[in-house]
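Pilot study result, target chain (286 residues):
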Amino acid sequence: MKQPAYAIVMFAYNEEDNIQRSLDSVFSNVDDGLTTLTVMANGCTDRTAEIVRKNIERFSAQRLQLVELSLGDKCNAWNHYVHQLADMETCCFFIDADVAFSSACFSQMSAHLNNADPSYHVVAGLPLSGRNRDYYETLVVERACFFGNLYGLRGSYLKLLRQAQFYLPVGLNWIDSFLTKAANTDLKFGSENLPNRVTYLPQVGYYVDSLSPFRASDIKLYRNRIARYELGKIQERYLDALPLSQWPKTLEPINRQIWENFPQQTQALNLIKRWLVRGRLKKLVG
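Predicted structure:
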């Protein structure tokens, strides 16, 4: 049986310390089904793009391509790829530039999605490492979630995204939650998941490094992650109150509303989370 074709898009923002490992992991776990690996370098100010260019010479331009965007925003990069670059005739994998991947995961996952019932839009990669591995695996298995580290979209679902003009608002902080809602409700954003929209394969997925409380860089990353997730949950409340057709192109007006009502919007947070969210939000609203 011929291996179904698939493409991969990797999102990278200042990942000079990690992207080589991720590229090596990708090319160690693909086969002839891979059409193109596109790296979306969004707003990078380090050597990320330079490292990708060196790998283009190493692997071949036909299979590895670099797209550089000036805006450092993953939503903008996701929108650009889905609406301008994605091949809607194949499965496309979305991955981050700081993870590694299990053996032959892309061919296994693409074949699984290709052979699944047509109602399935997404094949989710499972977390295979990390302190919270069991919790995140439960979210995939029991609640049909998927995460930006690794997931694949069916070509028919990519077509649906384009036809519906579905765009992630620039500045959205909790991207995985909204993409999960979109897939599980056929872009209707109802209160209940529709059955058979997200599938997965046991023991197939991605590896992430556990953060260390003894490394300053990891502490900073952890603080930023908390601020991003908690602000994203607040943004989510505003977007949930709007029909998809009225979602703003950028979260700037919503961020300003959150800022103006900050005490009320963050009353459920503890002091540390409130302080972290306030710092992140202040940078966004100026």
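One observation from the pilot: The chain has eleven helices and eight strands. A full batch analysis is planned for the follow-on phase.
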